[in-house]
Design a protein that fits this description.
Blueprint (H helix, E strand, L loop, with lengths): L1 H14 L5 H51 L5 H12 L2 H11 L3 H26 L1 H20 L9 H27 L6 H31 L2 H6 L51 E6 L5 E4 H5 L4 E8 L10 E10 H8 L7 E6 L4 E5 H5 L5 E6 L2 E2 L9 E3 L13 E7 L22 E6 L5 E2 L2 E10 L5 E8 L5 E2 L1 E2 L9 E10 L2 E11 L22 E6 L1
Parallel strand pairs: 1-10, 12-19
Antiparallel strand pairs: 1-2, 3-4, 4-7, 5-6, 5-10, 7-8, 7-9, 11-13, 13-17, 14-15, 14-18, 16-17, 18-19
Helix pairs in contact: 2-5, 2-7, 2-8, 3-5, 3-6, 5-6, 6-7, 7-8
The protein binds ligand MTE and molybdenum atom.
Molybdenum atom binds next to loops.
Length: 548
């Protein structure tokens, strides 16, 4: 023990002179200026390298954008990379994105893609200062990887190789050129004009990239846009005109949304980073697989079928309890059943695997289309041609099923097959192959956390159990007895049902309000709390209200 202590003391004592602060200061004083200059110079080189990398990357993206004017927006490097990221996104992350970004999930994703590319480009530029060959190879490799990612997208064709390849090539050339200018500038003496050459070269290239990228983006959007075709579309007249539902489908409560959700407010959920632009002139629908008479029809041929209007609420399996991914609309479409009968579905076939132009696949039960419900190929929504983001020119709809198993937008292919032999897009990602809509209800008024004056508090909201209908809605205040809400008139079992409740003598304080619905079969909505995966959330929507 004592030996060790002494040894330790000796050890520390022996270190002392080296740690003498006075000595170090004395030695550093004259050298610190040089070190600082060196650091500043190093910082300057890193900054210039990063700038060169960013500009080279920007040129690459701009070139990719310009080439995609020819090959299609979805083939541009950032969009293809983002689309790839979506395809490999694990289900929990997709849920996180839906929950936190909602309909802005695509903006969030693209921002992420651009930020990642910027960091990589800046790092590449710094690397190029010291290892130009390696940086060159990396830039080329990046273009090649981008091209591979693009060309392996399900909707791709060979031309999708070019935006990324040419982007990589352009970025490489700019990287080499600007790095050379930048090196010359560092070696040259002040006032030699190299600094001006470097700055002008870099900023000029950056400006060119911005103009080309911005212009390319505008150009590709206008070139591919089908908004003109949509504006021109003449809607067929339905066999029988559906009367407007009675005004009593909507309780007149301030702050409660209308019975029909305006198209501009209708939720949007899909995996398309750029909205598919499908011209009705080139649109075709193919029905094939386990059928006697496969066939293909054009949009004009589709219009020669009988059309009907149907009111229907559409909801997403990803809607959390109380969430916004539900909407109600009047749809115009042609029933799917006659089309299936024309094809002659084989007796063993139980699944319609529908595919969209962007190669989303959705599996729906044949049974649900043939059992008499109004499953349709819809071409209009609330009196106007389908909005492009809601599937123009044609989408599928089956009352009673979540969107991911029924509501294929931009649909062009119906493959009649079996659930046993085919997986739709979301199945390997953890969602059930079949998913009827679960009974759900929501309190919309007042907003959760709202302050309301004491007295009579009006509660209102909506409830849906699509295709089964809603028979009752009840509210519960602070774990009290469930009390019957006033139901608005029912339109069809396929639509949601709005409700209201006059909460008389609401006492001051913070209160919990809960809601539950009973569907048309008499089954009360389950209180069991379940998340979205694998087939829809359950539990009672609960809000707090501050009565004062
Ligand atoms: N082509 C395509 N169709 C699709 C989807 C998609 O990602 N791609 N998403 C489905 C899902 S999950 C839902 S909930 C509905 C949403 O339709 P909406 O965006 O018109 O509200 O579309 C369905 N149809
Ligand atoms: Mo969905």
């Amino acid at each position: 023990m004592s030996e060790e202590q002494r040894g330790g003391a000796r050890g520390r004592a022996a270190e002392k002179p080296a740690a003498d602060p006075g000595g170090e200061d004395a030695e550093q004083e004259p050298g610190s200026g040089t070190a600082r200059t060196r650091w500043v110079a190093l910082g300057g080189r890193i900054a210039r390298g990063a700038l060169v990398g960013l500009v080279a990357g920007g040129v690459g993206l701009a070139v990719g954008e310009l080439v995609s004017v020819v090959t299609g927006k979805a083939s541009s490097p950032a969009v293809a990379a983002g689309q790839w990221a979506i395809s490999i996104t694990p289900t929990w992350l997709e849920q996180f994105a839906i929950r936190n970004f909602g309909s802005n999930d695509k903006t969030a994703l693209l921002t992420g893609v651009y930020a990642t590319l910027a960091v990589v480009a800046a790092a590449g530029g710094v690397l190029a200062r010291v290892r130009l060959t390696i940086a060159t190879l990396l830039a080329v490799a990046f273009g090649v990887i981008g091209a591979i990612v693009a060309v392996t997208r399900p909707a791709a064709n060979t031309s999708w190789l070019f935006p990324s390849l040419l982007a990589g090539l352009a970025a490489t050339l700019v990287l080499r050129r600007l790095t050379a200018l930048s090196r010359k500038e560092s070696e040259a003496s002040a006032g030699s004009g190299e600094r001006r050459r470097f700055l002008l070269g870099t900023l000029g290239t950056a400006a060119g990239a911005l103009v080309a990228g911005y212009g390319g983006d505008k150009w590709v959007n206008s070139r591919s846009s089908v908004s003109a075709a949509r504006a021109k579309e003449v809607l067929p007249t339905p066999k029988t005109v559906l009367p407007e539902p009675p005004a009593s489908v909507h309780p007149n409560v301030r702050g409660l949304g209308p019975f029909f959700t305006p198209n501009s407010d209708f939720y949007r959920v899909d995996t398309a980073l750029t909205v598919p632009q499908v011209d009705p002139k080139s649109w075709k629908l193919k029905i094939h697989g386990m059928v006697d008479r496969p066939f293909e029809i054009t949009f004009d041929e589709l219009l020669s079928y009988a059309f009907e209007e149907h009111d229907m609420t559409l909801t997403c399996v990803s809607n959390p309890v109380g969430g916004p991914y539900v909407g109600n609309a009047r749809w115009l479409g042609t029933p799917l059943a006659p089309l299936l009968r024309r094809a002659g579905v084989h007796s063993g076939a139980d699944m319609i695997l529908s595919t969209s132009t962007d190669r989303m696949t959705i599996g729906s039960p044949v049974e649900a289309v043939l059992d008499g419900r109004q499953a349709m190929l819809a071409i209009a929504m609330n009196g106007e041609a389908l909005p492009v983001q809601h599937g123009f020119p044609c989408r599928m709809l089956i009352p009673g099923l979540y969107g991911y198993v029924s509501a294929t937008k931009w649909v062009t292919d119906l493959n009649i097959t079996t659930f046993a032999s085919s997986d739709a897009y979301w199945t390997p990602r953890g969602y059930s192959p079949q998913a009827p809509v679960k009974t759900a209800s929501r309190i919309d008024v007042p907003a959760s956390g709202a302050k309301v004056p004491a007295g009579t508090v009006v509660l209102a909201g909506t409830a849906w159990a699509t295709h089964r209908g809603v028979n009752a809605v009840e509210v519960q205040i602070d774990n009290g007895a469930w009390r019957e809400a006033t139901l608005a008139a029912s339109d069809t079992p396929d639509t949601w049902r709005q409700w209201s409740y006059q909460w008389a003598n609401a006492p001051k304080g913070s209160h919990k309000v809960r809601v539950r619905a009973t569907d048309g079969t008499g089954t009360v909505q389950t209180s069991v709390v379940q998340g979205v995966v694998p087939n829809g959330s359950t539990g009672y929507h609960t809000i707090t209200v501050q009565v004062s």
